Target: Carboxypeptidase
Amino acid sequence: MKSMSFLFFFLVNLCVFAQKTIPGRIINQQTKAPLAYAEIQISDTQQILTNIDGSFSLKLTSDSQMITVSYVGFETKQVEVNKAIQYLQIGLNPKFEQLETVVVSGKQNTVEDLIRLAINKRSENDPEKALEGFKYSSYSKFIIDNESGNISLSADSTSAEMKTIMNEGRGYLSEKVSEHYYTKQAGNKEIVTGIETAGFNKPVYNVLSLEVNPLSLYKEDYKLYKTEYAGPLGKQALRNYQYKILDTTGGERPAYMIYFKPKREKIVAGLEGILYMDTKSLAIQKAKAQLLGAVKLEVIHNYKYFPEKDIWFPSDQTTTIKPGRGGKEVAVFGGTISIGAVQKKKGALDLLFPSEEISRDLYLTSSITNFDISLDYDEEINKPHSEISVIQEAIQRDSMFWQKNRQIKFDSRDRITRKKVDSLIKFRNIDRRIEKKNALASGSYPIGFWDLDLSKVFKFNNYEGIRLGFGGKTNDRFSEQFNFNAYTTYGFKDEAVKYGVGTQFYLNKSTGTNLNFYFSKDIRETASFQYLKGQNTFAILEPRFVNINFFYNYRTYWSSLEHRITPKIKSELRIGREEISQLFDYSFLNNGKAYSDYQLSTATFSFLWRPFSKFLSTPEDNILIEKGFPQFTGQIQQSFATLGGDFTFTRIGLKVEHEIKRLDNSRTEIIFEGNYGFGDLPLTHSFHANPNNPNRPKIFKRFSIAGRNSFETMYFNEFFSDRQAMLHLRHQFRPIRITNNFQPELVIISRHAIGDMENYEKHLYRDFATLEHGFSEAGLELNKLFGGFGLSTAYRYGAYHLPEFIQNFSFKFTLQLQL
Model:
């Protein structure tokens, strides 16, 4: 028995060592240009295709072997290859005969005709259009590895000599099992029934939010790792791609081999690849797409034919990213992979693997296999509001579950990877790094059990001068049931201390149900309307805040209940009491009495509705994975004089935001906001239209930073209303490509506002207008001239046009930074 085992391993090793891999390249002999997807026939049953740069790797199993190289429009060549060759470059000579036409339905068609027919038949071939519903299960494996594959069984991952597991073997491994459901009415739904990430007690949900394995190649845009490419069979495909028929395949269902290449690469991002299209139905049987730039990206789609439905359905897919050269980048985890490292936009990947320690032969692979496919699903989809749901049991699956559901072999290298990554992640405290990254994304920095609120550290405005402070809240290290939150700041110009303190109880984390109690003493801008939901919790810079000079004091006590009605609807109900005192000469005349100081008892309901956004629901949280538009923010506030308050009034606000993104990286933004107030409404609780023009006579004295949705030529405190409507229109043209690193963006802007004040005479501060004639301005921005800086100009026109040019004109910086 021992001798048989020895003989077996001897023969296996002999076969391995007998093989030799020879790299090479196929080129046009005359122009020296690479020939993408040239065919190399190795034997009667084995052939390979070159990559888009003409490269290939040939494995020889004998000392000498004859291969045949062919390409449409070129003469076929036979070459003898032997093991003495280190690198093989083969040049093919052009010829005039080409496969330019094919016969479909008894007619001759050019390749453009063929693609046009395939586009028209998408409704018959795209499973999401041709079928009323379907379901299937999938197993996927997500790996970050290195090409060398060197693995040492005895290596100690906690050793000081071992810089990173990336130089020893795989550095990241995640497995997932899902059930997928689709109906035309509800769309797609994925239920994750099992997930395991090596080294982490809790799964890294970032992996689930990536569109690693897009189901369809028929869509207008093909989204991969947060990057959008033009679809090779989209409506604009013939405008974005050029095509060539390379060959046809044999078998029961022959296919055309069609090569596609971007036609407007500097304008619209595109992939280069090959489509295997069924000669009868023109459906995709198989596809291979590549991108060669700063990275080498390769995607392979395989489809399975279902004769009862006469449709090809995706069966498996593999995506690989390797280091490359050039100027292109591919987004991963919110960052971009380039030459084996994450650059520019830092994301979770660089937290796992710091760039200075990553080997340059890094590559990333994601494989998915679909199984248990049913094309007659007609049941109701539960919880359709989140596109991906992770069940509670998913993170607690045992080895039997994985053995049953693995559709891709989990080999010895995978097992070694899991063991090594487990110890490495604990040693390098990777969980802590991810915790910091998540906190920073919301504007906090974790220090032990305390998340420091970065927005409270430093601010500046005309009234307070420099405002320094400290604030934040306790995190889950302190308690997983509640948090304490507090802040204190000091204004060096007004020499006043402001502060706030509160607590939040997590009643149900999965539905975002929280009970809050809070007290604060601070200042607030007069006539500001702050939505409880839909506002950014942290901004690197608030341009308007610097020039605000009309504030009032407030002391407030409130409690609120937050609840996520569905993943797409967040809501909050707040009951509070405010004590208002003036910092400037203002009083409100009501029932014959002038009020400078007053008290308010209020109830406020606010909501954020994002019907077209995509969400990931987990047992602990609800994660936004793709922001869709339009989205709606609404709020209604009622003040009660019968509950100890001085005034009864109602304030209503509704904001609609819409954004249209295009494949050429241009986009159009539309924001409409309406505010309406009635009753005994003091100026402190009326509305302004977000003015952002300092009250100074000269243009350069007004030079500041432009806001994104503010009126740049409207002066502070110039207009107040108790009812108003605003419309902001922004159109950003595609980036102006000067160099790979210098691509400024031109934006045209149009803004409009109209308003009125019903009881103007009650406000004993009369130096303002009310927008009843309508305010308009138009502007230009040239962004990203230097880092995040750019320039902005705007001009005021219409009913409120002022006598002198400089009074109507603004010239400012723009600043676009990402946390």
The first helix runs from residue 2 to 18.
